[in-house]
Design a protein that fits this description.
Blueprint lengths: L8 E6 L2 E6 L4 H7 L23 E7 L19 E3 L4 E2 L10 E3 L3 H16 L15 H9 L17 E2 L4 E3 L9 H9 L5 E4 L6 E4 L11 H6 L5 E3 L12 E6 L8 E7 L2 E7 L12 H4 L15 E2 L2 E2 L2 H13 L3 E5 L5 H13 L3 E4 L19 H6 L12 H8 L5 E5 L10 H6 L1 E6 L4 H5 L2 E4 L8 E4 L4 E5 L12 H11 L9 H11 L16 E2 L21 H6 L1
Parallel strand pairs: 1-6, 17-18, 17-19, 19-20, 20-21
Antiparallel strand pairs: 1-2, 3-4, 3-5, 3-6, 7-8, 8-11, 9-10, 12-13, 13-14, 15-16, 15-21, 22-23, 23-24
Helix pairs in contact: 2-3, 7-13, 8-13
Bound molecules: iron/sulfur cluster and FE2/S2 (inorganic) cluster.
Length: about 575
């Protein structure tokens, strides 16, 4: 395990409480560390400071000293150094803490400031919470509860602005709800590097829009919806589908690539409604790609497998395991594992390969990285296959080596753990020469040709872990139950290993982790239950010599780039 470096601390006093916070922290974040919320709209921890909403006003002062002698000026009443309070409130987002600084976030002046800002923000707001998709997670709604007047002094006509403007294929804008915080503009420019948004017109008529001829269509566009503090930007996929307070949140991991962006899966009664990013400052900050947000649709895909079959007929799990074991006992078996399987499943896949005395293959998926949160390695868990020992070198991009073994008659049975063998390069003729056992989630040419098919669970329906490109072990949790007929991959693998006389576990996470602790040195001291939500960096020195395909991404530098930096 790698220990992170400790930051330099400065001591400040917030609402009378002394606290040490990392140097360079602004007042909003410093207050957060002592459990105090400084309300804000335009500030976002991962964007530049705009300082335009004025909601984060605080009072600030420094200990006084004699100008000539620099001696502290003492307060005879308290016996402590006097504080020189700045007469006007300051914005907390643009004020960094300094040693000895005093801050007031709850004074009568600050309360009055917040009420004034809220009154201005609500003057032209349509107040359409009952039909607004942001209700329940709207900062304007939240702050109105704390600092709203409860009635309006505004008797003039409200401004009318464009409604339902499609900014891009996935993002809808309601300009009347926009509080002009500019978060979406800054995100597009600073993070997505797609500078398409801006304000036009002035004062109360300021309006967010795309530049002429442009649209908000980049693969990170939905992050603007996440960070819009109000209901101005909404997702065309999610809007009007479900009220957020009905949804259960489950921590998960984006499986699009080896970046392993941390996510939250939002579900209700076994149905997933959306996926949003989860903050991890070491991996994805607060962002994720749009393409990862629709992966939940695979759960209900038309080709989802739900029926166990063996030799062309419906079977029980016992029957299918017996049929698969029978095929494997004939010898000349190859096991195709997956870089999309969890660490635990890969570990059992290795045991399965040992039980059949067969070679283990892995399908490499390499595409173009986008330099942000989609890396060149499109498997979420290639490192898991290395750490568990399922493979000892980087996988080829197709199974042509296995194809050659089939053609030479050295492989007669293939057990595929989730991989579509034809998509991975095996021809129909090659598939026809072997008996296939398929353990996975979706139908394909491989399942059509398979002798035994055992349906299993998607990443949303089970617990497990992946190891990302940084060698960070990150866990995901079960958000919804699997469909009737689908069986946990660990159970299937374990039963098959047992049927083949191999080293089985109890087919659950706990027992697999007991074996992982005992047999994998990098995981010797890791407890699955205690894995931090933001993951655990493993010692990767054993694989330093491999040429991984990834280039730089948000928080990752390939070893060669790091060495030259
Ligand atoms: S649309 Fe939302 S994020 Fe963009 S400026 Fe308006 S309030 Fe801010
Ligand atoms: S958060 Fe908007 S001005 Fe500070």
């Amino acid at each position: 395990m790698i220990q992170p470096a400790q930051p330099e601390l400065v001591t400040v006093t917030i609402d009378g409480k002394e606290v040490s916070v990392p140097k360079g922290t602004n007042v909003i974040e410093a207050a957060r560390l002592v459990g105090t919320d400084v309300p804000h709209y335009c500030y976002h921890p991962k964007l530049s400071i705009a300082g335009n909403c004025r909601m984060c006003l605080i009072e600030m002062g420094m200990p006084m000293a004699d100008r000539a002698t620099r001696e502290p000026i003492m307060d005879p009443e308290t016996g402590k150094q006097k504080i020189g309070w700045i007469p006007r409130p300051q914005i907390g987002c643009a004020t960094n803490v300094a040693p000895g600084m005093h801050i007031k976030t709850q004074s009568p002046l600050i309360k009055e400031c917040r009420e004034g800002v809220m009154e201005f923000l609500l003057i032209n707001h349509p107040l359409d919470c009952p039909i607004c998709d942001q209700a329940g997670e709207c900062k304007l709604q939240e702050q109105a509860t704390g600092y709203g007047r409860g009635y309006s002094r505004f008797i003039e006509q409200k401004n009318v602005k464009p409604k339902r403007t499609q900014l891009g294929p996935r993002v809808m804008l309601d300009d009347e709800r926009c509080v002009l915080c500019s978060r979406c503009i800054r995100f597009s420019k600073e993070v997505a590097k797609d500078d398409v948004l801006g304000f036009v017109d002035r004062g109360s008529y300021s309006t967010l829009t795309c530049y002429p001829g442009k649209e908000l269509a980049n693969n990170y566009s939905l992050n603007t919806v996440d960070i819009c503090p109000v209901g101005a930007l909404t997702s065309t996929d999610f809007r009007f589908k479900m009220r957020v307070w009905f949804l259960k949140q489950t921590n998960s991991i984006d499986t699009e690539s080896s970046v392993g962006a941390n996510t939250v899966v939002w579900s209700r009664e076994g149905v997933i409604y959306r996926i949003t990013p989860r903050r991890n400052d070491e991996v994805n900050d607060t962002w994720m790609a749009d393409s990862g947000r629709v992966l939940y649709k695979e759960v209900q895909a038309a080709n989802r497998l739900t029926a166990i079959s063996a030799n062309g007929a419906t079977a029980t799990l016992e029957g299918a395991i017996a049929a698969a074991a029978e095929l494997a006992k004939g010898g000349n078996v190859a096991v195709v594992g997956s870089g999309r399987s969890s660490v635990e499943e890969q570990f059992l896949t290795k045991k399965l390969a040992a039980a059949v005395d067969g070679e283990a293959f892995l399908v490499g998926r390499v595409g173009e990285g986008d330099g942000l949160l989609i890396s060149a390695d499109r498997n979420p868990n290639t490192r898991g296959a290395l750490v568990t020992g399922l493979i000892d070198k980087l996988p080829e991009s197709d199974l042509s080596a296995l194809g050659a073994e089939i053609d030479a008659g050295r492989v007669k049975t293939i057990i595929s753990v989730g991989e579509d063998l034809s998509a991975a390069g095996l021809s129909a003729e090659q598939l026809a020469k072997v008996a296939i056992v398929f353990i996975g989630t979706h139908g394909s040419d491989t399942t059509a040709a398979a002798k035994v098919v055992i349906p299993t669970l998607t990443v949303f329906e089970k617990n497990g872990s992946f190891i990302n490109q940084q060698f960070r072990l990150q866990k995901f949790a079960k958000a919804i139950p699997g469909p009737a007929g689908a069986i946990d991959d660990l159970v299937v693998l374990d039963e098959l290993i047992a049927a083949l006389g191999g080293e089985a576990t109890d087919g659950d996470l706990k027992s697999v982790w007991k074996s992982l602790n005992a047999e994998v040195s990098q995981l010797a001291n890791v407890t699955y239950a205690n894995l931090p939500a933001t993951g655990l960096l493993l010692d990767s020195s054993a694989w330093a010599g491999l040429s991984f395909p990834e280039g730089e991404s948000l928080h990752f530098k390939p070893a060669a780039a790091e060495a030259s930096a």
